[in-house]
Amino acid sequence: METIGFIGTGHLGYPIAANLLKAGYGVKIYNRTREKALPLEQLGAVLVNSPEETAVKGGIVLSLVADDKAVEAIATAALLEALGQGGIHVSMSTISPDTSRALAAQHLQQGVQYVTAPVFARPEAAEAKVGNAVISGNTAAKERIKPLLQAGFAKHVFDLGEDAGSANVLKLIGNFMIAGAIELMAESFALAEKNKVDPRVAYEMLTTILFPGPIFSNYGAMILDRQFTGNPSFSAALGLKDMDLVLQTARRSYTPMPLANLVQSRLTTLLAKDIKDADWIALASGALEDAGL
Questions:
Q1: pLDDT, tens only, 202-213
Q2: CA-to-CA separations, 118 to 75, 153, 255, 273, in angstroms, rounded
């Protein structure tokens, strides 16, 4: 099987890279903190010292990093030259649609295709390959990368056409809806508890009858158990970054999003308290604290 490049083995990138190795792909890995990627060597990964060293001429490089600046920092002339004509850079990061569109144009000037493929999955779902991908970009390039996404994390792949920014728009919408669901559940469980209704019974009924599905069942259980800190697989800081991008995209398209403003405020307040190791599920603490719980 072919050798691919992989940039960024954080909480989410690590299980995806591991799955690709287990599937038989050769994987050249660059991670800013090299030590975090060392265990992947035991699975056969080759660790390199720069983003461009992950590339094979005409090959594929996948990247999964924190934000727009991090993607722009790795998408250098050196990386594009190393990929060369026919190469593909798959950006799996949650970034601004405008940034993706600019990067797609920059890549194309060097004969490299840029495909947007943000990840819908927490690390445990990615490891189990039951996550989902949304993709946009060049049609032929998308067909070429689909097997990698399926081998790495994706149970389903949703194609949004050729505009590189479209997949980022949908990813931001998805993260906004999750944040909104967290706020909805926190307020609802607070109302139950304040009125002497067992919130766990309410949770069981609501997630069985009205809102079945992993978002409500998984995040709802975390709210009930107050699993707000520890070793976050998706930090409150990254959650705030995403809500900032949601509202930035909304402003540019004149789309009022009052709930997005609320969850952005919840996350800002949480981070202002300097709570260490806060997962973004901790935005639920705002509604609970407001209710005196």
A1: 999 999 999 999
A2: 16, 11, 22, 30
Active site residue 171: yes
| Mean pLDDT across the chain | 96
CB atoms within 10 A of CB 253: 9
**Are 125 and 182 part of one and the same domain?**
no
| Residue of 142, 171, 196, 241 with catalytic role | 171
Distance CA 38, CA 268 (A): 34
Within this chain, do residues 56 and 193 fall inside the same structural domain, yes or no? no
Please identify, among 162, 185, 207, the residue that sits at the C-terminal boundary of a domain: 162
The pLDDT of residue 116: 98
User: Is the pLDDT at 113 greater than 90, yes or no?
Assistant: yes
Co-location of 120 and 62 in the same domain: yes
